[in-house]
Design goal:
- This protein has helices at residues 2-10, 26-39, 78-82, 121-138, 165-177, 195-207, 233-241, 259-262, 270-277, 281-314, 317-320, 323-364, 367-372; strands spanning 43-55, 58-64, 71-77, 93-103, 108-118, 156-160, 183-187, 214-219, 246-250, 265-266, 377-380, 405-410, 413-418.
- It starts with a helix and ends in a 10-residue tail after the last strand.
- It has 428 residues and is of the alpha/beta class.
Amino acid sequence: MSEDVVAATTVPATAADTSPDNPWPLQLLSQKLKMHIDRAPSAWVEGQVIELNRRGTNAYLTLRDVDAEISLPASVWTNVLDRQDIPLERGSRVVALLKAEFWLKTGRLNMSVKDIRPVGLGDLLARIERLRHALAAEGLFSDARKKRLPLLPHRIGLITGRDSDAKKDVLRNAALRWPAVEFEIREVAVQGNTAVAQVIAALRELDAHPEVDVIVIARGGGALEDLLPFSNEELIRAVSAASTPVVSAIGHEADRPILDDVADLRASTPTDAAKRIVPDVVEELARVRQARDQLRRDVTRLVERETDRLASLRSRPVLASPEVMVSIRHDDVERLKGRSQAAVTTAVVRAADQLVHLKAQVRALSPQKTLDRGYAVVQLADGGSAPGTRRDVVRHPDQAPPGTQLAVRVAGGRFTAESTGGQEPADD
């Protein structure tokens, strides 16, 4: 008993503690694996049945992922299969409730199917619509995100099936409309579990190509299950993230994969895509001719209108007789010149008359005029004067006592005299 306890206590507690000298017993590893796997919850998964074998009460099937090359074997009780309204067969698309089981004695991992249900067209359509609404709510289908296609692409990237009718339709109709069109073609699987991965890889390759101006994803019509890759969320997000404009040309007019909503342009068919990505050379040449004719008419009208304007300008008097402009100005100058001379002459005559008048006034007031009327100016001959008198003019008899020599100025000149004295009253 004690030896067992000692042995138990020497076993490492975790796998990380094991070593070549202190390993786990195999059964301990198996038990721990079984305990871990038993704790794992069941999970609903979707896949396609590619193998189905019944053996008594058990059945063995293989499920494959719908979008990738991944398969998983599983076992199921036949009574679970018998509950289905429609018997399962190879190629059926199903959802299954799987539970991992670990067989302790053999060390074998088994996936046990607890429930399985076929996925009908209604379920697929409902799932596509839910995804469509979710992506629309994110704004992936917004018109603001869509890019405009170039008027004339330098090179067109084409993603299509290998040697498909869609490829031929696009190439033929594009060449008919624009013979010089060039294509960069990527042939991929357009249905099946590898379609999504191949289309995404081709899309990213063409998106990185420096000469590709627009990318067309084309496929002919088909059943709903065949078109499911073009409603795959991963592919839709890859198209939304592309920097090059993408045209969706999937199926027929009635087909509506989610790719149509996220693409920058939806074409109803591959033929319609070819018509919408390149212009029609015949129509473009016709437009060029129309534009040239319109331009010619506009230039002709412009020349005629300007010719008429020149003729109208030349017919005006100023251009018909340019000297009139000078002669009119000459007459104006002469008239103004005469007016200015008359004004100056009038001013001079008026000023001369005024000057004569002023001279007459000045002469009438001058001392000489007073003398001419018989008056005389008496002054002291020696220039002396009595105290308090002003200068040497005799203004009072007291200034010239008897014997005073006087200088008398009259109109005709000067003479001297001697005062005899005396005083007579002044005349009033």
